[in-house]
Structures are given as C-alpha cells and as structure tokens.
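I have been asked to look over a protein record a colleague put together. Alongside the sequence sits a line of tokens, each denoting a local backbone shape. Please read both lines and tell me whether the tokens look consistent with the sequence. I do not need a full report, just your reasoning and any doubts. I have pasted the whole thing underneath without changing anything.
>
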Amino acid sequence: MSLLVRHRTILALSILALGVGLLPAPFARAADGRVVVAHATTISASDQVERTGAPVTFSVALTSAHASDLQQFLSDVTNPSSSQYHHFLTASQFATRFGASPESITRVRNYFAQFGVRAHGVSRGHVLLHLSGSTQSIAHALAARVVAVRHPSGDVAAVLRSVATMPASVARDVAGIAGLGGTLWGSHSFPRTGSTNAPSEPSTLGCDTSTTGLESGSTIGQQGLSVMQQAVLYGLDHQWSAGNDGTGQTIGVYELAVTNSSDLTNFAKCYWPPSKYPGIVKHVSYVNVDNGPSDNLTVEATMDVEEVMALAPGASITVYQGPNNAAGTVDTYARIADDATAENPGPTVISVSWGLCEADPTGAIQAEAAVFNQMAAEGKSVIASAGDGGAYDCAGQPNTVAVDDPASQPLVTGVGGLTVTGLNPVDYSNWSSGGGGISTVWGRPSYQTAPGMTDNTPPQSGDPMRLVPDLAVMADSNTGFVGYFTQGSDPNRCVGWCGIGGTSIGSPIVSAIVATAQQACPDVAPFGPLNPALYSMSIGNSNGFTAGFTDVVNGSGNGVYKPDVGYDLVTGLGAPNPDTFVSSLCAVERSFAASATTTTTSTTTTTQPVLTKPGVPTWKSATALRAGLQLVVFAPTVTGGTLGLSYSYSLTGGRTWVTVRGVFLPTQRVVTIKVSNLPHNKVYTVAVRAQNVVGSGPATPLKTLKTK
C-alpha cells in the first residue's frame, strides 16, 4: 500500500520519565482467548496483489522485561539531580537492562516456528525479532487473511487484510508487529507549476552564487534562500564564527531512498568550496539496511543530506538507507539504535523526513515506539518533519483531521512549517501546508503542561492528548532551500539548481542546529530526548515561549488551526531565535529535570542567583526616519540576573516581535534599535522589550510613528 510519507509510526512503552504516561489502546482480547496484535490495512491502486509462495519479511516488537524500570531510567537520565544523569546506554546495555527477556524471545520464536515462519535473529537492543515466511504461514500464525503485494518499487510485502490475533500466552510478549503494511513517501514539496519562483533548469552545474553561495543579503532569491541567509535566520553564522560548525558531532539521516552522491559533490562545490571544507563529502557515509532502498526518490534523500551538509558543514553524516516498505521502515530505525556501542555511540542527532498519517493502520506504532525508547536511553535526539498535509495528514482522506507520525511521538521532536517573506526584518508566517494538530494516540506529555500550553488549544473530550508540532522552521517551497538534483522519479522535478521545500527540509535544519548546540556546550551533550528541554525554556513565562524562540502569530493556519500568541497547533513554540536558541538550550540543559507531573524544575544554590525575566525598558526617544525608525530605550532596572540581555521590537502593537541581533550586557544602559527598509509614509505602533534565557519581560508603552 502506498502512503504519503513523512515520518513514521511508533510505540509501545509508556515513558513516565518524560511524562508520557499514555499508551495506545491495549490489544483487544478475542472470545477464543486470542489477543488482537495488529489491524487490517488497505491496498493502494499502485500495489499489485500477487500469488507467490516466496517468503516475505516482517518484525515483531518485543515487550520490555522491565518496562517500569525503563520509565524511571528515562526520567533519571535527563535529570541533573540524579546520579544517572547523562549515563546513556549502549545498545547491548539496553538489551541487558530493558530489552526483552531470553524467555520472551524464545516463546515468540517457537510460536511462529510451528507454522513454518522462520526467525532470523533479534536486534542488538532485544527490541525486534526478525521473521520471514510465506503469506500462508503468516496467515495461519496470526489467524488472519494475508496477501502478497508488489509495490511500484518492486518490493514484495505481506499485507494484512483482517485483524491479526495471537494466543494470550504469547501476545503478552508482543508489543506490536511491523512489516505487514505499505509504502512511505517523502514529504518534500517543489514550487507549483507556474509559480513565479519556479526554478530554472540549467544544463550544467553553473554555480549561481547569487542564489546558492554564502552570500547573505536581505532579498530572497527567485529559487529560495542561500545557505548564508539560512545561517543568519537561525544564528548559525555566529556559531560558525565561534568555531561551532558541527565538528565532532554525528548526524544520522534516515532515508528510504537512494542518495545521489554525485549531486552532493556538485552541491558542495558551490555551497562549501574546497578551500573551506576540502573533505566535506567524505564526511558522508552510508549504511544499507535490508539490502538498501529500491525506490528512486533520490531528490528526497539527496535534499535531506544537502541541507544538513550546508548548515552543519563540520559534522559527520551517516545516511541509513532502508527499503521503502513496512518492514524496512522499522528495521532502519532499529539499525540506527543498534549502532550505539561502547566504542562509538553512533549518531546522537537523528533527522527523519519520512512518515505517514498517525491514524493509518499500516503504521507499526508499537513496534517503532519500542525502538524510540531505546534511542532515548542511548541519548539520541530524534527530529521529524510534521508533514505537508496541514491538519489533514491522511493521504487519500482529505477530510480526515490527523497528525503525522513519528512527529507525534512523545519522544520525537515534531517540526512544523513556516513561510519566510522578509529577512530584514525577519517576517514569518505559518506555511499553510505545515502539519499540526492533536494526536489521537498519545496522551499529553508533562512537558506540554507548561504555562501557555492550554490557553490556545481547542477543548478536548476525555484525556488531554499530545500536541503537534513542537517548533517550526522554513518550509514553503516558494521561499525554500536551493539544492542541486539530477535524478529521481519525483513529479515536477527539475535538473540542476532547484528551489525545494516542505517540512522535509525542517528536520535537517533543526538537526543541524541541535548538532551545533551540542558542540557549543559539550559538557551537557548529547541532549537526548529534546522536547523536555525545549518546553522547559518556558519556565516563568505565562505565554509558554521564551527568548529561545521567535513567536509566530501571522498566517492563515493549516486548515483547522491558526497561529496564536505562545504555543499553537501550527507553529508550536515558534521559530528558533537566532540570538538565543543555542544559548538557551545549553543553559536549560544544565537546570532541566523531567518528571511525570511537572515539566521542569530549576536547580539553584545560595551561590547562584535565581534568574528571572527582565524588567521593562523605558523610552528615551522614538524617532521616525526616512523609510525607517530609530528606537532608543534605557535598559530595565531589573535585569533578571547576571546573564546578558537581548531585545526585540514590535511594529504591530505587540502582536509580532523581531529580535535584535546580539546580546547586551545588563550594564549597557542605553540601547539603540534602528529599523530600516520600511515603506514611506506608513504608520507603525511600536514597542520594545528585553529578554533573557528565562523569558521576555514586559514591553514599553506603545508609541505611534509614521515613517518619512
């Protein structure tokens, strides 16, 4: 079956550690003492049912032998006050402490063997048992109807056409079944045909430095933003200047298609010439899973790697490539988790631009979730795109409100989409196709109970549920990323330099920023599950966001939900603030503690002053200029502690805010903000506020000015 992808389906074990505390509905018990372990799926028009006796592969996710202990460990390993803080595990250590017991593995293996279904080994973390058999033997084992289908890629898979059951005595060892479903597709998005920003199609490489190089500038090119413009947008230019370019970090890129290595080489020649990073392409390595991908969606895979390479040029990149089928998707996750060894922890930041509708029954949510538990215990940050279907994420079901998986997973950071229409000052609005909404599977994690998290979300019946996304970055294909592509089966693809977008570019962007932050504060790296730290930035802020984020309140919404002040179901906490996101993340990691009931706690001593939000600045002058404004304020008398301050201004009466580049010492009494390139003879209602890592302070009284 074919599905528009973006991420994936996952999970079985609740993580009280991070306040997850809610599981998918438990397996139902059949009247004959059997238990439902999987549900029927549909077959898409692009899949062909075949009569074949050839074996097909799938995996069984195994229940943890110590699920409650795992929950406690995930809490302790992210709590600075715990002796287990940052004592992350290897895959083998996870298997010993929290993986399935040898007895469970044996029971499941023996059960399937009696039907002629063969076991091929268990994952290193003792999370997945790999199996193969004919559709007839699988059908007998699961008391289900099972058919073989051939996907357009050529892969043959088994697909459930009825509910699958197992005896209760064995089902207790099974967290989920993966591999008896369909195909995923990448969530990238080219500019629409006829768009004024439609990419040219040069026949040669032709490094167009005006749109592809390291130039900054305040004008967005016809094809999209340059590398340097993106770097400025997210403060990476300052990090590069400080020597933080991702060196020493490894980013894992999850792919279900082939990456075009020659495109990467040509891309690097323009973005990062040999004089700067002579071996940048050599930083990219590949791991084939289940014999590697067969799909020809090379643009999706190549785009992901190019974006990571562009924004974290010093990082090592490991591309995990699996087949685009239901078995390969989970096996690829498991291989990433299993590569954490004592000699090499493997990638600590994982970028995922693939997925599917959370409500789709083909997604092995329980199976994938078990793998994400292992990744969390190993200290990996998993970052996934929230999808390109707006609030309606289910392919073929345009009226079904749903979120994308794995972005909806509590242990995964979901990245929504923004449109960038201005760079000086930055002008954000939500991208109308960016995914976001309310999970129907996962309960509300404790990190989403911070101030501001419930003010702007719709009322819900029953238990409160996980909210998506967690943050948002550029995604609109009309002002997106400029990459280099020559191959692929994607419709509307170009040849050469192309503007491309979608939330698929969001997960590589955030992954590059997080890897850079880990290099900037190595004493608290790796971060591990990222969401608790992101939401802990809202301590003491009634709006639910801080200086770490730029709040986004403009835009038409995503079909159901609209952007609003603070957290919303379109842009999450907002966009990473270029001046404060990295420093805030590093600071909050030092004081973060997760629990089942609270988002974070602040740890202080008598020798460390308690940080508070800064006070209100006071006006010295506000002057209208020709096509601009000059705003001068006195620094607040309450500085919030000893850390530096940043400032932001509003031209919309406090509805939207723009952060001024740079951090100021509290002793700097007068701050001058000059805003240029504004329209002539236009009236603005202006205000200024100060902010630190705790949050934004109150704004100055409003002033009305008219540009000359």
About this structure: Residues 506-520 form the longest helix (15 residues). The chain has three domains: 16-185, 186-442+465-521, 618-706. The chain has 15 helices and 33 strands. The CA atoms of residues 214 and 228 lie 5 Å apart.
